[in-house]
Design a protein that fits this description.
The chain has 19 helices and 21 strands. By secondary structure, it is of the alpha+beta class. The structure holds adenosine-5'-diphosphate and magnesium ion.
């Protein structure tokens, strides 16, 4: 076990057992280190992190969940915090940094209570009561939002993307995000339901982000497999295959012993026949366009081309799924099962040149589909754009589904903190202390937003609190430092993100508080890459950009 100077530290093997308060406080320390690591990235003025992985690939981001996912953290308590942020990402698609930061602060406040000899179970109970109440408060201060209010939806998208893009084509992107969501939302009984599988985003390096555009239909980043195939098929009958188009024998890798050239000739004839049979099955189904997840034998390509069939091979599963949704085709797993009724339809399938590459466009599909083709100078710009867009898509979808939003700029957190204090005063037992601490912890959100924007955190929180007595929508404009009505400023977020952030953070904190025993397992740890160097951590520690993460307060053996 070595120190933190970028050298590996592995715990839990050959360590002694930790129990009681020692275990709890070590767990809290580890989890808080993770929270501190992402804290400076929160909000519109949050800083970026440069993540370096074990093979030296670089990601620049201030997206909480991306940072957390890349962190190679070993401590189980720290991992729980990361899991909570991932859950947040999966469930609602935004608010991941908030989860980590809030959970870290809940734990910091819990430590104070532990020092005052409040039992962890009591803290957990109080925190749960506070979280329930906080959710009620959030709901009570929420606004109604209608899908028809496009301007409002665009503001949701813009808030979710704020600070995530270097140059700021936010407004155009916000519009695209709304288009994509509305296109992929359907009535499901009484409800409006968004289907992420129907959102298509393709990236192609070149031009600039401003050249990104929405295309009606699905775009696949692949060329047609054979040069003699048509470059364009109208009135397409689309087959989707998850099996290869090849001779069955090669598929099953039978071993053939060949001893003479006659035998070889015979074998080749046989193979040819089998390949033709495979191609014929596709042709017989009536398909004139084929998207194949696996390979297509050279000879099969030739037969398909002869029959005027356009085919793409090695199409990724995700794209097949999208094509299935858009064209109405079934994905078929074996050529023997391919029937005319499995085919989907599209008015046009064609190849087009995009930048320096070729992509295949499927338009006029049975079910309307839209693809956002992202353009940007480098792969990193594109990846960043995609991450920002992803947050925006989910945020807009949350609002379209729930029709509820809250304002941003920490206005809800301030209101929740204020009202939770009132609620705490109505309680008798020791939970009261925990609820009050929970209220204090909520203030980490305005504090962090203020700090990251370069303003005095305490001053701003005091100002926000005092102004809340007359207007509960007062939040912090992170650009100017003014406390303003966030609804008027147009900074709005899905209610669902706020509620889920509170619940996820509370869950993570409570989970960690309930552990009072850490036992070393006898299982061998998995082999580590590149000399056991935790990649993300090493890189980031080296950059000095991670407060609390680096050399400071962490005892060796934490990660
Ligand atoms: P998360 O991963 O938690 O979504 P972000 O870095 O996206 O973290 O920051 C979200 C926070 O930034 C929210 O509290 C949101 O209200 C706030 N925010 C977004 N835009 C603004 C703005 N223009 N002014 C003030 N706060 C903002
Ligand atoms: Mg966000």
């Amino acid at each position: 076990m070595a120190g933190m100077g970028g050298t590996p530290v592995i715990i839990l093997r050959d360590t002694r057992r930790e129990s009681g308060n020692e275990a709890i406080s070590n767990n809290i320390m580890a989890a808080r280190a993770v929270a501190n690591a992402v804290r400076s990235s929160m909000g519109p003025k949050g800083m970026d992190k440069l993540l370096v992985d074990s093979i030296g690939d670089v990601t620049i981001t201030n997206d909480g969940v991306t940072i957390l996912k890349e962190m190679d953290v070993q401590h189980p308590a720290a991992k729980m915090l990361i899991e909570a942020a991932k859950t947040q990402d999966k469930e609602v698609g935004d608010g991941t940094t908030t989860v980590a930061v809030l959970a870290g602060e809940l734990l910091r406040k819990a430590e104070v209570l532990l020092d005052q000899k409040v039992h962890p179970t009591m803290i957990v109970q109080g925190y749960r009561m506070a979280a329930d109440e906080a959710v009620k408060i959030a709901k009570s201060i929420a606004f109604e939002a209608q899908e028809s209010d496009r301007a409002l939806l665009e503001r949701i998208a813009r808030t979710a993307m704020t600070g995530k893009l270097a140059d700021s084509p936010d407004s155009k992107m916000a519009g695209y995000a709304v288009d994509l969501v509305l296109n992929a939302t359907e009535d499901y009984g009484e409800k409006r339901v968004f289907d992420m599988d129907r959102v298509n985003v393709e990236k192609k390096v070149g031009e600039s982000t401003a050249d990104s555009e929405i295309i009606e239909g699905v775009v696949i980043d692949k060329e047609i497999v054979h040069q003699n195939m048509p470059r364009k098929v109208t009135d397409a009958k689309v087959a989707l295959l998850s099996c290869p188009i090849e001779s069955k024998d090669t598929e099953t890798k039978t071993e053939v012993q060949i001893t003479s050239s006659d035998q070889f000739q015979m074998f080749m004839e046989h193979e040819k026949k089998r390949v033709k049979e495979a191609a014929d099955k596709v042709i017989a189904s009536g398909a004139n366009v084929v998207f194949c997840q696996k390979g297509i034998d050279d000879l099969a390509q030739h037969y398909l081309a002869q029959a005027g069939v356009l085919a793409l091979r090695r199409v990724i599963k995700k794209d097949l799924d999208k094509l299935a949704k858009a064209t109405g085709a079934n994905i078929v797993t074996s050529l023997d099962e391919l029937k005319p009724s499995d085919l989907g339809s599209a008015a046009l399938v064609e190849e087009r040149r995009v930048g320096s590459g070729i992509m295949t466009f499927i338009t006029g599909t049975k079910k309307s589909a839209a693809t956002l083709l992202l353009r940007g100078g480098t792969q990193q710009v594109l990846d960043g754009l995609e991450r920002a867009l992803d947050d925006a898509l989910h945020a807009v979808a949350d609002v379209v589904e729930d029709k509820k939003l809250v304002v941003g700029g920490a206005a809800p957190e301030i209101e929740i903190a204020l009202r939770l204090r009132e609620y705490a005063a109505t309680l008798k037992g020791r939970e009261q202390l925990a609820v009050a601490k929970f209220a204090e912890a909520m203030e980490i959100v305005p504090k962090t937003l203020a700090e990251n924007a370069g303003f005095d955190a305490i001053d701003k929180v005091v100002e926000l609190k005092s102004r809340h007595s007359s207007n509960k929508n007062i939040g912090l404009n992170a650009y100017t430092g003014e406390t303003v009505d966030m609804y008027e400023l147009g900074v709005v977020e899905p209610l669902r993100v706020k509620i889920q952030a509170i619940l996820s953070a509370t869950d993570a904190a409570c989970l960690i508080l309930r552990i009072d025993d850490v036992l070393a397992s006898t299982k061998e740890p998995p082999a580590r890459g590149a000399g056991g160097m935790p990649p993300g951590m090493g890189g980031m520690g080296g950059m000095g950009g991670m407060p609390g993460m680096g050399m400071g307060g962490m005892p060796p053996g934490m990660f």
